[in-house]
Amino acid sequence: MRTRTKWWSALAAVAVATSVAVAIPPAQAIGPDLLPLNITNNSGRSESVHLYVLGTDIRNGRLGYVNQAGAFTPWSPGGNPPTPAPDVSIAGPGQGGTATLRVPRFISGRVYMSFGEKLKFFLTPDGLVQPAPWAGGDPNSGILFDWSEFTYNDSGLWLNSSQVDMFAVPHAVTVTGASGATKKTGELKSGGRDAVINGIRNQSGWGGSIMSRSDGTVLRVLAPGKAADVGNFDRNYLDSYITQAWNAYTGKTLTVQPFGDRPDVKYFGRTSGNNMNFTNTSGQQVASFAKPSTSNVWGCDGALHAPNDQVVGPIARTLCAALHRSTLGRIDVQPGGGPADFYQGAITNHYSRLVHQNMVDGKAYGFAFDDVQAQESLVHDGDPRSAGIILTPFGGGSTPQPTGGSIVSDWHGKCIDVPNWNFADGQRLIVWNCTGGTNQKFEFVNGTVRTENNKCVDVAWGSTANGAAVQLATCSGNAAQQFVLTGAGDLVNPQANKCVDIAEWNPNNDAVLHMWDCVGGANQKWHRG
Question: Gene3D superfamilies from the xrefs (predicted)?
Fold first, then answer.
């Protein structure tokens, strides 16, 4: 059974890494002492790739890093405030190439991969501060990067792609065993990265989870708990569903059968007040859980803390998975249902839903206990000979952008218009009946939307607020002039993470344009004419 374990110390309130590690009895050593790990770059991106192998020596708990040859070095003590860690990056492969690293048998940790820029790590007296791009002031927030998690010990290799904290770099993981057979998971469908990003953008209230760079590159989608922590998502989003699901068991019994290979082990839950109390088959109470908060569900912690035991932990894991998948209250034997039954509620973990939906095999680590019912993107071999991480295509890096022509409202067929051919800086844009005039012609150039006389569509004053005016300005290259027309028809400024919107649903000529939260309304939908 896999459990989340903290595998290095970090600065309080900044980040503590959680790794999907494995509790496994000792076994005779098999597999090479230094396991080859092949990193293949099929990303389609031209930036340099930087790799890091970081983790814990599971024999003694020492934290450190691994070089390309497989030598493990413990970190030196850091300071307070944290001091920069030495550069332990390994040069990754160029597009179409492969780099081979070696992983020693006794490490549990992460392989980080960043594009274009090296990651910045820091040391405290207690250990390593890992990148936490959801935290304010994190120096890695503008870097495109991701990681995979692994444990390699005498019982074999466990390697997974993780979306528990964020969805960023598309990559698959593989392991090849002694028989020569290769297992693979974590691969996105063609266009899957854009599909996840656009799906989140079009889900009402979720758009703040998307983090973009000033050049329009989408760096990552934050998991809902991380987005809520930084104020980009409703902190109480799940509360009404949690209450409904919890109260469902005041009048009926929830049966939890946490072990797939031991169907005789059952626990029975009933709600009394805010507590759900569980008894075993002998009628003895064995566990009690207070009604969790939204934050407890996102983190599978707090009221849903899962100790590494054989009773409370397995029940907590099961409850947390059911709440993420919106099956608690609806399916009364848990774990219950299958992928077709998951995420069916209007209030659900749409982040995990979209990530799973866009995986080739449907597997992902969309939340901490996504391994309940084996939904996780993990490969394991008890006698591995090599492993791999494949950086897969980004789908062009963004939705392919159109070139010249008019921009037409899906709602009423009117065109974005420069009123009276006034191309002065600060001129607010409107909609008007489509006439084919040059004041209704716009071209997408390097992420900007330009008039035929080379003025740029601009968010006034670079505002990120609802209601900010959409205007013309001299092209300056700043983030207020970056726009993406998504496959779903949203015209988005990535800096504000808001959509070009016909203000007040005004159906008339002369209706002004402004920026607003992307809600999927027809007054925010556009196409090229």
Answer: 2.80.10.50, Beta-1,3-glucanase, C-terminal domain, Thaumatin
